[in-house]
Write a structure and sequence with these properties.
Blueprint: E1 4-13, E2 23-33, E3 38-42, H1 49-56, E4 64-69, E5 72-73, H2 79-87, E6 89-93, H3 104-114, H4 119-133, H5 148-160, E7 166-170, H6 178-195, E8 198-203, H7 206-212, E9 215-220, E10 223-229, H8 230-235, H9 240-247, H10 256-265, E11 269-276, H11 280-291, E12 295-306, E13 309-319, H12 322-332, E14 337-340
Parallel strand pairs: 3-8, 3-9, 6-7, 7-8
Antiparallel strand pairs: 1-2, 1-4, 4-5, 9-10, 11-13, 11-14, 12-13
C-alpha cells in the first residue's frame, strides 16, 4: 500500500465576490507516493502544488476525492485525529519559519514539547539531531546569527524531532545560493537513505528534482500532466510543461533563434539525436555516419547523468552525399529519436 495516496482529489475555493467563479486549485489529481522514496512535485507558480501539500498534511481537506496517509483516510476525521496524523509528518519551508526568540536548541525542542515528549528525553533527541545536521557548535545561537543554509538545517532538525514517517519540503532550497542548495539536498538525501523517511519535495526548480528525486509529478493548472521515473521524464518528456522544465536544465534540440544562429554558421543538414542509457547511442551515431562517409560536426547539445544512467541530445551538422545521409538516419532510428531541422 502506498504511504500517501490521493484519488481523484479536487480542491475548489469559493469565489471572493459575486462576479467571480469558484477557483479549482487542485483538479482531479490521482497520485501515489511509495514508502521510502523521494517524490518530486514540480510546477510553476499557481500550478496547485502548495495546495497539494496542505492536503497531504491535513491542513486542508479535499472538496472531493480521497486522501489517505499511512493507511488513514483523512476525510471525515475529527481535528483531534488529524493532529495525530500531522505528528507523523515533518515540514520544512522556503523561509525557514524559525522562532527568532528561541535558540537553535529551543527551535528543535518546540515540537517535542507540543507532542508531549517527556522532558527527560529532550536532551538526548536534540543532541542526536544537532549531530545529524552538523550544528552542534550552534546549539545556543539564535536564528539571526545563522546563515541561510544553517537556518534550513535547523528547520530540517526541527521537522525530524518527532520521528516522522514523512517529510514535506515546500520550496526548501528556493532562498539559498547554489552551493548551499547542494549541501541541503545532500542532507535531505541522507534523511531518506539513513533514516528511511519518505520525502515529498515541492519545487519549481527542475535541477532539484534531477539531483534528489526518484519520481516526479509535473503539475499545471491544478492537474498532473506528467508523472513517472525522473530519468524517464528527463530523457523523454511528453507534456509541454515537462518539456519546458527539462529544457532549462538539459540540452534539447535547438529551436528558434538558436537554430537560426546554427544554420548561419554551419553548412549542411542540422539533425538532432536524442538517446538514453549507457552512452552507446552517441558512439553508434558517430560510427554509422563515418561508415557511410558522412562528414559531421557537433554544433549543439550534451550528455547528462541521473543516478548512473546517461541520456543526451546532440545536434550535428551533416554534409555529404544526400542518399548516404538518408540511409544513415534510417539505420539510426532504433538507436535514437531523430529530429531534422526544417
Amino acid at each position: 500500500m502506498p504511504l500517501i495516496s490521493l484519488t481523484n482529489v479536487t480542491k475548489t475555493y469559493p469565489p471572493r465576490s459575486r462576479n467571480e467563479s469558484p477557483t479549482p486549485a487542485v483538479d482531479g489529481v490521482t497520485l501515489d507516493v511509495e514508502q521510502g522514496e523521494i517524490h518530486g512535485i514540480i510546477g510553476y507558480s499557481g500550478a496547485g502544488k502548495s495546495t497539494l501539500v496542505r492536503l497531504i498534511n491535513a491542513l486542508e481537506l479535499p472538496t472531493s476525492g480521497s486522501v489517505t496517509v499511512d493507511g488513514r483516510e483523512l476525510t471525515g476525521l475529527k481535528e483531534r485525529e488529524l493532529r495525530k496524523v500531522r505528528l507523523g509528518i515533518g515540514m520544512i519551508f522556503q523561509q525557514f519559519n524559525l522562532w527568532n526568540s528561541k535558540t537553535v536548541w529551543g527551535n528543535i525542542e518546540y515540537p517535542l514539547a507540543v507532542a508531549g515528549v517527556p522532558k527527560a528525553e529532550h536532551q538526548r533527541r536534540i543532541s542526536e539531531l544537532l549531530h545529524f545536521v552538523g550544528l552542534v557548535d550552534q546549539a545556543h545561537a539564535y536564528p539571526d546569527q545563522l546563515s541561510g543554509g544553517q537556518k534550513q538545517r535547523v528547520g530540517i532538525a526541527r521537522a525530524l524531532a518527532t520521528n516522522p514517517k514523512i517529510l514535506l519540503a515546500d520550496e526548501a532550497t528556493s532562498a539559498l545560493d547554489p552551493e548551499t542548495t547542494r549541501d541541503v539536498l545532500g542532507l535531505l538525501r541522507r534523511v531518506n537513505e539513513e533514516l528511511g523517511i519518505t520525502i515529498v519535495v515541492i519545487t519549481h526548480e527542475m535541477e532539484v528534482v534531477r539531483s534528489l528525486a526518484h519520481r516526479v509529478a509535473v503539475m499545471e493548472r491544478g492537474r498532473i500532466v506528467e508523472h513517472g521515473d525522473v530519468f524517464d521524464v528527463f530523457s523523454n518528456p511528453q507534456s509541454q510543461a515537462a518539456k519546458r522544465f527539462v529544457a532549462g536544465v538539459v540540452a534539447t534540440a535547438p529551436e528558434g533563434e538558436t537554430l537560426e544562429a546554427l544554420r548561419s554558421r554551419h553548412p549542411g543538414r542540422i539533425v538532432s539525436f536524442a538517446f538514453a542509457d549507457g552512452g552507446t547511442g552517441q558512439s553508434a551515431i558517430f560510427l554509422e555516419l563515418t561508415r557511410r562517409g558522412v562528414t559531421f560536426e557537433l554544433v549543439h547539445g550534451g550528455i547528462d547523468d541521473i543516478r548512473g544512467r546517461t541520456f543526451g541530445t546532440i545536434t550535428l551538422a551533416l554534409t555529404g552525399d544526400e542518399r548516404s545521409i538518408d540511409e544513415a538516419l534510417a539505420t539510426l532510428t532504433p538507436v535514437a529519436t531523430i529530429t531534422e531541422a526544417v
